[in-house]
Amino acid sequence: MAFNLHAPRPPQPHEDDNLVTEGVQALSYYENMKKTLASFNTPTDNTSDTVATSLQPYQRSHAPDVLKDFASLIIDVCAGYVIFQTHALTASAPTDNPSASSAVTTLTSEAALQIRQESTKKLQTYQGKQNFQPLVYFLVGGVRGLFLLSKNAQTASVSECMSFMQAMAVIHEHSQVDQTPEEKIWSNLSAYLVELLRPSFQSPGKIVPIQQKPDPHHLAKAITIDFLNHWKIQQPTSPFLIPEATQQITEK
């Protein structure tokens, strides 16, 4: 698919790279991933040439843009996780991971220090503009958290997100409502995200970026299947009728 041709290559860590540098490389990878996601155009159907030319084409809805925005939120989840992970691994490296501190074997101490300082500045830059809401909402509410995520363009700092998680912990402790982490409705979408994020989230001791960017087409398919399944359960005697367009659909 053409979508995958625009995907950036995952970073390949070098033996001389320190943990901060690896984190910055992953964040740069995610930044480029979001750029290619924004530049990707949903392909049009060439079979529409058979439609009578006298018919006025419909304009494509904003749905593809919404799916791209949702895919971008998923990338933000990954980027936020990498920032936290980089700080955690860097803090524990001297005692918990001695091999990491001696990884720079072919560089002089001065060169290694300069690289680390430059990487630290880049990490601070990424952290300063990172919105941590997607990560926090995903950790708290799963797929539902991403759906509920505010459209506020302002970024949420780490302290604000920690305050939110603390408040959620208090609410959970005193809530009388039965709560479950299972995604009863969004099972297919949840399964897709789990498969996508598995390499990164199952490697807490090593920075491992996701290998593929979120695909809007896969997201649309999973969301549609989950919606139709839920509709079937809620309305067993009233099947959901999917409309079919008889005219050409074009980009706006």
UniProtKB/TrEMBL annotation:
Name of the protein described by the UniProt record? Uncharacterized protein
Give the highest taxon in the source lineage: Eukaryota
Q: Which organism is it from?
A: Puccinia coronata f. sp. avenae
Classification of source organism: Eukaryota, Fungi, Dikarya, Basidiomycota, Pucciniomycotina
